[in-house]
Specification:
The complex is a heterodimer of chains A (341) and B (376). With 341 residues, chain A is of the alpha+beta class. Chain A has helices spanning 20-34, 37-40, 74-87, 108-125, 180-188, 206-215, 229-241, 256-265, 284-295; strands at residues 54-62, 68-69, 72-73, 92-103, 128-137, 145-155, 171-174, 221-223, 244-248, 279-282, 304-310, 317-320, 326-328. The chains are: A alpha+beta (341), B alpha/beta (376).
Chain lengths: 341, 376
């Protein structure tokens, strides 16, 4: 059998049919790029030893358009997305699985770029992609590639972040600038021809989480503000914990370029997606120690305390505006930016 | 961001607020209508009401293009997309406006209508070129600000002879709406809605200039201060209005001199006059039929007029019975006075148009100011 033509070749229906072409795609692309003993065993699933303690499992589907954007692509995004969901439970991610839905006609060169990027992201994050699946749909039934990843990880003892643990008086911390991913994607969409230098912040955050837990094991809440941005994440946490949250607008880290692009597009950076940022809520006594540890980590240089948890039966998120007034920061309504991750 | 941040500076805001509090006469009330949704949004988003003394009150006006679009016009747009199978291009704000039979453009899209959200009117011509076999209709809405770009695409389509493109024109005019409010029984006869002054439109005035407001200041003795959409613009305009009222003046003043001239944008006005003409009457959601308040495509550009091309008739559809959008758009009621507000009607499931656009009075209050009325 001739080897796959990664220069000019395209995905066709046989690549999903389960025959030789499917096997060849797995062999020459996925197994080669993800390279580990579990995949090499070529079984229907991966068999691995279970460590003692509690495990976390999370899943995330990725449909971002365009597939390639400044600062990343759907491949590394698919790894980071699930690694971060596992990490937000306080866990150390270990294994991933990946499901691919490919559209007939996709260039093999693009697919290879994506899979290489996934492999690289997984190696950097120290996780193995141990099982996977590939299906092909007819042209017009997909949009290039959709990727679903599922991850498992282990939670160290004494660590139990959960969305329902925010208490009045707690501090709200963000790990860095808000809205970078959404604006980077937006700048690439064909019908929005503005050039910006903003890159997606897509990154695996478990290292940063580990650094935070080292100085404050009892973080109350951890969450990554992806779709719907910081505003939506804080509303989720307020609602789960039955508390209110008051933000200080002046403390929010936002790049001037992102603020300017949002201004132009009529977007609010608080609602724009991030893919390499986290929100932490912790006891006031832990707050400055956590921020210090975050700032010492490359992914938390611009970490800041941005708000306080308050008693509020209405579970409202409010903001003291830098203008001097007060306003609500409500749930995202409808859809601000479609197909963002 | 330098040029934006300086119009949002908190320290300057506090100084201006102190000046307003100092100058406002505690023995009287100042009832100021901001006509534009852009101002409504800025007031809610920056918490401007928090900075004003209690006797300086802001009343939200009807200047939200999406809010005043009547159900019948949206129904017609949906029919174009669903029944006539045209590609309907529209600005994002109109997607969720509730229409008849619990439909909206968004829901029509889910039923198979080809509806495209665009950012610029010129996108329509690209779409028309990409789909030569299909009718492409631009669902054009908005006040004087969005009208010139619509004129430009029609002129461009005529120049290039694009056969499959037309415009469903719903452009409306600001001065006629202000006039209508001032003539309404609540304001003029009954006095149930006392209005002392107007904050005049920002972007609209960059096109039409400040001259069209002279009539209101003179005829109705109401000061008009044209203001930009930044929060400091709004505060400064309020201060200018307080001064005019204190001194018994009723003039047109321009706070937004960095963008607005007395004559406006001559080129834009010429383009609009070339392509559009006045309609005898047009229905506004909330205000009803308003004479000479909207534009239609001139006879000369008839091939690009979707109403002529598809023979679109007009059927007026009443709002939901309990919906107070009409009274809210006229300044008679506040969002929290409506029984549906935050119960049956929310931004996720808007019953009335004021809950749809972020410039709508109900959506602005719901999204930014709901905590103020939570005791109620």
């Amino acid at each position: 059998m001739r080897r796959l033509d990664f220069k000019r070749g395209r995905i066709d229906m046989t690549h999903g049919a389960g025959g030789r072409a499917s096997a060849q795609l797995v062999e020459e692309l996925f197994r080669a790029q993800f390279d580990n003993a579990w995949l090499a065993s070529a079984n229907d699933g991966a068999c691995f030893a279970v460590p003692a303690g509690r495990m976390v499992m999370a899943t995330d589907s990725h449909v971002v358009s365009p597939l390639f954007f400044p600062g990343g692509d759907i491949g590394c995004l698919a790894v980071h997305g699930t690694v971060n969901d596992v990490a937000m439970m306080g866990a150390r991610p270990l294994y991933l699985t990946a499901g691919f839905i490919l559209e007939e006609g996709l260039a093999l060169a693009d697919l290879r770029r994506i899979v290489e990027s996934m492999g690289r992201a997984a190696r950097e994050a120290g996780v193995s992609i141990v099982a996977g699946d590939t299906k092909v749909v007819e042209q017009g039934s997909g949009d290039g590639v959709f990727i679903t990843t599922t991850g498992v990880g282990v939670v160290p003892p004494g660590v139990n972040p959960s969305g329902d643990r925010a208490q009045p008086g707690d501090r709200v911390i963000v790990s860095g600038t808000l809205g970078d991913h959404g604006v980077a994607i937006m700048s690439q969409r064909e019908n929005l021809g503005f050039a910006t230098t903003i890159e997606s912040d897509t990154a695996a955050l478990h290292g940063l989480v580990e650094a935070m837990l080292a100085v404050a094991p009892d973080l109350h809440c951890l969450r990554d503000p992806t779709r719907g941005g910081l505003a939506t994440t804080l509303n989720e946490l307020a609602s789960q914990s039955g508390v209110g949250i008051v933000l200080d607008e002046q403390a929010l880290p936002i790049r001037p370029e992102v603020a300017a692009a949002c201004e132009l597009l009529g977007l609010d950076p608080l609602y724009v997606a991030n893919e390499g940022k986290l929100v932490a809520i912790c006891a006031p006594a832990d707050a400055s120690r956590v921020v210090e540890a975050m700032r010492a980590h490359p992914l938390g240089r611009r970490a800041a305390i941005v708000g306080t948890v308050a008693q509020d039966a209405h579970r409202f998120v409010q903001m003291e505006t830098s203008f001097g007034g007060k306003r609500m920061v409500d749930w995202l309504v409808g859809e601000q930016l479609p197909r963002i991750c | 961001m330098k040029y934006i941040d300086e119009f949002r500076d908190g320290a300057t805001a506090r100084k201006l607020a102190e000046a307003i509090a100092r100058e406002a006469d505690p023995r009287r009330t100042y009832r100021i209508m901001e006509f534009c949704g852009g101002h409504t949004h800025a007031i809610a988003r920056y918490g401007i009401a928090d900075l004003l003394p209690p006797n300086v009150r802001l009343i939200h006006g009807p200047g939200c293009p999406v809010c005043v679009l009547p159900i019948g016009r949206i129904d017609a747009a949906i029919a174009l997309a669903l029944e006539r199978r045209a590609i309907l291009c529209t600005y994002g704000d109109t997607m969720r406006v509730p229409a008849s039979e619990q439909l909206s453009l968004m829901k029509a899209k889910a039923r198979g209508a080809d509806i495209r959200m665009i950012y610029a009117a010129s996108d329509c011509l690209r779409i028309a070129a990409e789909h030569p076999g299909r009718e492409v209709v631009f669902f054009a809405i908005g006040f004087e600000t969005t009208t010139p770009p619509t004129a430009v695409v029609i002129l461009e389509a005529a120049r290039a002879g694009i056969p499959n493109f037309s415009v469903f024109c719903n452009h409306v005019l600001t001065p006629s709406a202000i006039n209508h409010i001032l003539e309404s029984p609540e304001v003029r006869g009954l006095g149930t809605v006392p209005l002392d002054a107007f904050i005049g439109p920002a972007h609209v005035s960059t096109i039409i200039g400040s001259q069209p407001y002279e009539f209101f200041a003179e005829e109705y003795e109401k000061p008009v201060v044209i203001a930009g959409f930044e929060p400091l613009d709004v505060l400064q305009a309020i201060r200018m209005i307080v001064r005019q009222l204190n001194e018994g003046r009723a003039e047109v003043e321009n706070e937004f001199t960095r963008a607005v001239t007395p004559e406006g944008n001559a080129k834009a006005k010429r383009l609009v006059a070339e392509v559009f003409e006045l309609r005898r009457s047009f229905e506004w959601r909330g205000l009803g039929e308003v004479p000479y308040s909207a534009l239609r495509v001139k006879e000369r550009y008839r091939p690009f007029d979707a109403e002529a091309r598809f023979g679109i008739g007009y059927r007026s559809v009443p709002d939901h019975k309990a919906c107070e959008c009409g009274a809210i758009l006229r300044g008679v009621k506040r969002p929290q006075d409506c029984k549906l507000f935050a119960t049956a009607c929310s931004p996720e499931n808007p019953m009335g148009s004021c809950m749809v656009s972020s410039e709508g009075a109900c959506a602005a209050h719901y999204t930014y100011g709901r905590f103020r009325s939570r005791a109620a």
